[in-house]
Amino acid sequence: MLSYTLRRLAFAIPTVLVISLIVFLMLDMAPGDPTGSLPLTIPLEVREQIRQSLGLGDPVMVRYFKWLYMMCFIEPMHILAGMTGWDIAPDGPRILSWQTRSPVGDILVQRVPQTLWVVGMGYLFGILIALPIGVISAYRQYSWFDQVGTFVSMIGFSVPTFFTGVVFILVFSVWLGWFPSMYDTTHNVTNWDSFLFQVRQIAMPVAVLALFNASQISRFMRASMLDNLNQDYVRTARAKGLGEKTVVLVHVLRNSMIPVVTVIAIGIPTVFTGAIITEQIFRVNGLGDALIRAIYVSDWPMVQTITFIFAILIVLFNLIADVLYGILDPRIRYD
Amino acid sequence: MPETGLSVLQVQNLKTVFATRAGDIHAVNSVSFELQPGELLGVVGESGSGKSVTMMSLIGLLPSPPAEVRAGSVQFDGKDLLKLSQRDLQALRGRDIGFVFQDPMTSLNPVFTVGFQIMEPLRKHMGMDKARARKRAVDLLELVGIPDASARLSDFPHQFSGGMRQRVMIAIALACDPKVLIADEPTTALDVTIQAQILELVKDLRQKLGMSIIWITHDLGVIAGIADRVMVMYGGQVAEYGPVREVFANPAHPYTRALMKTVPSVRGERAPQLNVIAGQPPMLSQHPTSCPFRARCAHAFDRCARENPSRVVVSEGHDTACFWDHKTGGPRHG
Amino acid sequence: LADRERGSSGHLNIIYWQAVSTMNPYLSGGTKEMNAASVVLEPLARFDNLGELTPWLVDEIPTLDNGGVAEDLKSITWTLTEGLLWSDGSPVTSADVVFSYEYCTHPEGGCSYRDRFAGIDRVEAVDDLTVTVYFEDVTPNPYLPFVGAGSVIIQQEQFQDCLGARAPECTDANFAPIGTGPYVVSNFRPNDVIEFVANENYRVPTQPYFETITWAGGGDANGAARAVFQTGEMDYAWNLQLAPEVIEQMEAGGMGELLVDFGPLMERIELNFTDVSPDLPPDERGTRAHPHPILSDIRVREALSRAIDRELLTEIGFGPMGMATCNFIVAPPAMASPNNDNCLVQDIDRANELLDEAGWERGPDGIRVKDGERLELLFQTSTNAVRQDFQALIQADWREIGVETRLRNIDAGVFFGSDPGSNDTYLKFFADAQMYASLFEGTDPTPHLEQRRCGREPQPSTQWQGQNINRYCNEEYDELWAELNREPDPDRRQELVIALNDMFVQDYAHLPLVARGRVSAASTTVGGIVMNVWDSEHWNQAEWYRIEE
Amino acid sequence: MAERRKLVEVRDLKMHFPINTGILRRHTGNIKAVDGLSFDIYEGETLGIVGESGCGKSTCGRAVLRLYDITSGTIKIDGVEIGGKSQSALRKMRPIMQMVFQDPQACLNPRMTVAAIIGEPLDEHTDWSKAKKLERIYELMDAVGLNRSFANRYPHAFSGGQRQRIGIARALALNPKFIICDEPIAALDVSIQAQVVNLLEELQDRLGLTYMFISHDLSMVRHIADRVAVMYLGKIVELAPRDALYADPLHPYTQALLSAVPDPDPSVEARVQRIILKGDVPSPSNPPKGCNFCTRCPKVMDICHQIDPEYRELAPGHFAACHLYNDAGQTGAPRTERNQQGEDA
Amino acid sequence: MTDTATPPINPDEAFRPPRNQWWDVWDQFKTHRGALAGLAVFVSIILFVVVGPMVWQVDPGQLNIRMRNQGPSLDFPLGTDQLGRDLLARLMYGGRISVAVGLVAMFLGLVIGTLIGVLAGYFKLLDSPLMRVTDLFLALPLLPLLLILVTLFRDTLARTFGESIGVFLLICFAIAITSWMQTARIVRGDVLALKEREYVLAARSIGTPSLRINTRHILPNVLSPIMVSATLGIASAIITESALSFLGLGFPPDFPTWGRILYEGRDWIEQYPARVVWPGVLISLTVLSVNYIGDGLRDALDPRIRGR
Ligand SMILES: Nc1ncnc2c1ncn2[C@@H]1O[C@H](COP(=O)(O)OP(=O)(O)OP(=O)(O)O)[C@@H](O)[C@H]1O
Ligand SMILES: Nc1ncnc2c1ncn2[C@@H]1O[C@H](COP(=O)(O)OP(=O)(O)OP(=O)(O)O)[C@@H](O)[C@H]1O
Ligand SMILES: [Mg+2]
Ligand SMILES: [Mg+2]
Ligand code: NI
């Protein structure tokens, strides 16, 4: 298993590099223009100068390797320095966002907390809701609970989050005034009250995302439980005199979780690119927001960097999913 | 009909039906038998004759739906198992009645260690703590003949060979020293040398622990070797029931007779051709109103198509459900 | 009023749904960045809400009369107010002004407001408080450099290592510039949130009234409006591009009010004078070598203009936030031509007549045909809900006079980009008509009018760069513009602007639609806000205060 | 016997499944599922292969048909060497050699009708018309005793015995000469086992087929096979004509195997003396040094732990690999004589 | 004969030459109530968008400025939008595109995903490269990719196929190329398990070449995960299409697809919720009905369930 993991890791590095190169070339080809979002009053000569100052004069491969060097060495050191306070940040240019003219790494570091709070929680709660729903729907297949569950999850999947989000805001912020409609990214949790405020401000976006995520995951959970409920070992467990709870929650669940856990693991990278629409509706300026804004203004260094991190996460979590599979299911051997 | 006596388990008129989309399947019809203390009852019969379903009905292990126990009573320890609540049944399963399932490959949970699975009933029924349960698990594994038992507790089922898995299943069933052990084709998947090891073990256990055993198999050789009494099932019904020597020596039911003839042997004369029972097993889609074996029976006559024969005693403790009298070679009277 | 003190109003919440990406306006050029920076960084003089020049860091506006502007119109001398301090307590000197010029004109710096300093020969510090700007040429309007929110003074001390290529690397300075304005940045997160605290060294001792400001960014226009009008979470929301009914309904709650004022921003349709048929060779497509087969005829252009119901467009798209117009230059009011009101009323009959005259006959399906060719136009614009509604309305109007319109909407980033590789940019204009809005900075439309001069059109040889988007070409116009560019007399300039406007508009070279107001929303609990379309909306931020009940 | 034609000749067949470990996927070991088998099968005869679960019987069968890419050795079928042929080249040979699989449920695609399953080889190797194929399918169904009306049913609707018949019909479709039956009866109950075995025998009589019959049921093998090979851990430990083997097993493993078979007669059962083997089968990836059986052998000697016994012909047609018979004068010698006497029984 | 193993032989069935197995599928499908309801709804939706405009002959682009933002009335059964266009007509007309794009893009995506999944699962050598390609596509930022596709291909496609078909193909292709990855992963996982099945080995022993092993034995058995992907795929294709059109990468703005109507209604959610609810309901209904059809089909395609 260890060697399998190491081998996969060794392959992961070239994979990520190739992905980053392809993305870089693709962005270079894309028709957007970093000066496209500037007011039309700015004359074209000035625009051209701005483009030159962004380094667009260099050939694309030169830019790529510069970026790669900065991405793989300088940025991590700076982020590490920022987190630990050590004085290890190397000199030399960092990856600068074309739009904000500031290091991309710093912006990403700023945005991770919101993303984790909101999108991460949304995912987490989605899972927490989905699992029991999936388990019960399968255990009582074709009961009214199951039927309603199917219906709701299909609706949850096909109704866009901007609809649910706006409805939530109207009901809970405008009419009832329970929750703030806008997320305060500067809020720090220091004590109980501030924690309560944090809970209130993430309540709605988390609810919206949780509904969406739960819809998908509960389907997987249900299918997987159904596969396992009829297995022979379930009968063995019953024959041992174990209670239904133990039978379902220990024996069946553990087996059913195997595919679900991998589905969940593969879904985690998407947490990091955020839930763009939900972030926008609730003004949660997370990574998703950073990405979409960067795309709109053709801020390619930003897009490239986020994509790169995303690619790493995807490759990594695919690997984790496979390894988890092996750990959860002792029958699987990787060699 | 089995005589009533000091039996551990007494089954009367058990009737189990599977309600499926395509209609009911009458898998078990009016099955009655009893089990004496320390006795080994062998159950044989063709595939699909309801052996497994009968046994699982006893302690409510059939998936419901589709399974439904429609009638009958199962007396165990002064209680009717069919009327017990789910909770009481759970307390009884594993502690008083152990069950070994037909397919050892899939009957163990693949993601838990063997040790965990053996210790589970110990901790639940005997209230043992972890350490004591572990010790007992080691003893059990040694009892069923798995070498290096304490090390193997932390292995997963897939790391065991088929024969070892079957022995683990037996260990689990024996964990709480049950009064009754039901073993459903425990050796069918194994090769003969390992089967022989297990048969030895069972004989041993019976002597040591004095438990009653129900042993389901197709293999008449196995029955001949270990059983005290035998029950032959056909089409969801008991075709013949009696002491093993008596039944093997004087099979009363045409199905039993045919069955005996199909088996080749490693010893003695080699027959040029195997005997077969022509025809197909019955469909079980309706409540039987006629003899289920009549379409394949060499001695069938009118009455067989009109009436479902009930069990008649042919000699001491030996009964059969047939209108044909093997002694006279003609229809039975009464 | 007398008891208002610095900081007495407490905290102010501002929401910019298009978030601010940097605090250095020179490195961004966006209006939102300019607005945010304007509460920290200030110019020497700015325009007030009426468009009048107002001294800001100086005591008076230099003019010919007071000798501040040289007789030869080639230099202007500014004198800083005495005792001005940067927010870090150091004095503001003329060297800072000179440095600001150097910073923005550095060839590698990529300064967005470089054009403000165009035509300058040099900037000299005469003494600590006096600075003179020398122009290369006669400059009748010398009030571009250091005037208005786009041309602010930055501190030399802070930015001196940030010249040229190093400009973007000074992240700390770019995110928290030291300024003379009423507020100081205490926390800046790009594209997210800015926190300001009052500047202790601000020159007016009682101001600013608000102690702190949270300047939130992100979300969407709807949410921003809702936060002001419905939940009261925000006190001020910028740039609410929403349907009039939506705003009206929200405003009805009474928690906030809409602030609208009209500047030079105008929504228009450009008509293409060149043929953009894909069958043409790539280096000739969309150039003056091939005049447009349909739109070269002024009668067609006029018909298209007359068929449009501008009042209706305004009502549907902007409501109180727009005004139908037929002018190219719509503001300042004095420069808006009074001669072109004829197009305000839709005149289908006249339009039909014109097309009949031009030889376009109605075909069986109602679409006009001439020489076997259908009167069919491709009409493109950027993606934006109001513009798509406009497209639909105009399509219907034109359909009525027998013109078939194919619509296309393009992502704004691509449409307004200048990538020569993309065929979808407004510069390439590979369509027959396109719609967008444009404006000019300050109050002087000269550079704006210059755009329509012959030879300034985008073409293959210039990598499709150029500002004469519709490839208009009229010698008379060019001559008249040259005259304007030399004329110092304000009255005469005004006449010339109107004449140029009329010439362009009456040629139906493009079709003005709606003069768009700047739209923001303010909570009813905030006072002192004065909407300004000529400068930053936050030009008088120091004077905003909380209304106590 | 010798004058009969050899249809299948297998020499030193090895099938090792590689175990790769390490970052570089270095090949660090082998599962020696089949480790040096040599045997012949004569035209028209049935070779039985017995042995316990996991000893490599199925692997051997599949390797002989080249369903695996073998590690080494030669396989000659009908005079054609197929050991090294590519899969596409083998395609033409397929009609000659067919296989009936161990698990009748698993080897039938649950989504195909019986007609489609039986017709698949026809689709692949003939260009007959639809009607002609259908004709042949019905013919095959008749041959294996399936009612024609079952043609449109799916495998799940059949009993185990019927499913096995479908598998047999599929194997017969192209008129093969050689069929490998991989435990065709293991999954069936007694009465159905008998049906299948009878069917196989009848087909052999009618069509002159050659079988390799893999099973762990010694009584069935005794019934059907002409010669029997006993495998243990990837090797043949004993190969002999059927009666010779059953009457006088030489190898201790064979002896244990035969003694372990229960007898359906309770009176016989009570008398039988069993050799109960102790311990478990070693792993094929790490076989013991010396004789593979030395860990469980009741007659184990020192030499067994050192040297792998040679596979030798101890009597005409009777091969075994055991040290017991390697030195003349040992306990094994008289048995060999006895065996010779019983040869033509 | 009632108690032999085989059910009473139906005289029609006996000796009937093997018929196309899709008949069996249909027979079984008919017994699945949910699936039938789903099919009925789906057919109604198709009728609604195909036949609807012929019955309700209102031009979806017709502006009635004086009748803006009306509620339901006889003239406008579902009311009008902010330009006074009839919502019913727009939904019917727009549904054609949405449903067509949903189906075609989903289908294309499934084909690509299945192909990659099968190749990766079946051929060991291709597994790793293809899965890395899948990773690549998962990581690619969607929007720039679509922008490039549009820039590169729109004009060419428009010239060869005409504007609307060109755009249609482009959109379907763009959605497909960015949505196949999930399917590929799932299919690969199943194929990995399936190819070890004995009946695949059996097919090899018969001499069936790889291609037909895949089409005949493997593909039909991965149908059920594919069916799930199809259900989810239709929903996301419809939504993605609207996002594309909305960004100006898709259909011209006068094509009222469901997604676009939904997006446009978004700002008016408070004033005129019906404008969001109707297209939302239609999309959900389509997805739900496809889901139930998928369920039924999955059951029907599985002969083991069929018998029950
Ligand atoms: N879950 C079920 N649903 C429907 N019918 C069932 C179910 N389980 C068993 N049956 C039917 O009940 C009958 C008896 O089955 P049972 O498993 O008891 O046979 P058996 O005698 O144990 O056979 P074997 O020797 O093959 O184990 C069979 O006809 C079978 O088809
Ligand atoms: N594809 C494979 N990869 C690795 N090992 C394999 C493979 N196939 C079989 N083996 C191993 O080879 C050995 C022989 O397996 P095989 O299936 O031939 O046994 P068998 O004699 O047919 O047993 P059974 O009676 O259970 O069918 C086993 O240890 C098995 O684990
Ligand atoms: Mg059974
Ligand atoms: Mg095998
Ligand atoms: Ni490992």
UniProtKB/TrEMBL annotation, chain A:
It is a multi-pass membrane protein. The chain crosses the membrane at residues 9-27, 116-139, 151-175, 195-215, 260-282, 302-328. GO terms for biological process: transmembrane transport. InterPro entries: BPD_transp_1_N, MetI-like, MetI-like_sf. The keyword Disulfide bond does not apply. Keywords: Cell membrane, Membrane, Transmembrane, Transmembrane helix, Transport. It is found in: Cell membrane. GO terms for cellular component: plasma membrane. It holds the Pfam family BPD_transp_1. Residues 112-321 form the ABC transmembrane type-1 domain. Its main location: membrane. Gene3D superfamilies: MetI-like. Belongs to the binding-protein-dependent transport system permease family. This is Peptide/nickel transport system permease protein. It comes from Roseinatronobacter monicus.
TrEMBL record, chain B:
One of its GO terms (biological process) is peptide transport. Belongs to the ABC transporter superfamily. Residues 9-260 form the ABC transporter domain. It is found in: Cell inner membrane. PANTHER family: DIPEPTIDE TRANSPORT ATP-BINDING PROTEIN DPPD, OLIGOPEPTIDE TRANSPORT ATP-BINDING PROTEIN APPD. This is Peptide/nickel transport system ATP-binding protein/oligopeptide transport system ATP-binding protein. The keyword Transport applies. It is a peripheral membrane protein. GO terms for cellular component: plasma membrane. The keyword Cell membrane applies. Keywords: ATP-binding, Cell membrane, Membrane, Nucleotide-binding, Transport. GO terms for molecular function: ATP binding; ATP hydrolysis activity. InterPro entries: AAA+_ATPase, ABC_Ni/Peptide_Import, ABC_transporter-like_ATP-bd, ABC_transporter-like_CS, Oligopep_ABC_C, P-loop_NTPase. SUPFAM superfamilies: P-loop containing nucleoside triphosphate hydrolases.
From TrEMBL, chain D:
This is Oligopeptide transport system ATP-binding protein. It comes from the Bacteria. The keyword Zinc does not apply. Gene3D superfamilies: P-loop containing nucleotide triphosphate hydrolases. It is a peripheral membrane protein. GO terms for biological process: peptide transport; transmembrane transport. Signal peptide: none annotated. It comes from Roseinatronobacter monicus.
Automatic annotation (TrEMBL), chain E:
GO terms for biological process: transmembrane transport. Residues 95-294 form the ABC transmembrane type-1 domain. PROSITE patterns: ABC_TM1. It is found in: Cell membrane. The chain crosses the membrane at residues 36-56, 97-123, 135-153, 165-187. It is a multi-pass membrane protein. InterPro entries: BP-dependent_transpt_permease, MetI-like, MetI-like_sf, OppC_N. It holds the Pfam family OppC_N. It comes from the Bacteria. One of its GO terms (cellular component) is plasma membrane. The keyword Nucleotide-binding does not apply. The keyword Protease does not apply. Its main location: membrane. Keywords: Cell membrane, Membrane, Transmembrane, Transmembrane helix, Transport. Belongs to the binding-protein-dependent transport system permease family. This is Peptide/nickel transport system permease protein. It comes from Roseinatronobacter monicus. The lineage of its organism: Bacteria, Pseudomonadati, Pseudomonadota, Alphaproteobacteria, Rhodobacterales.
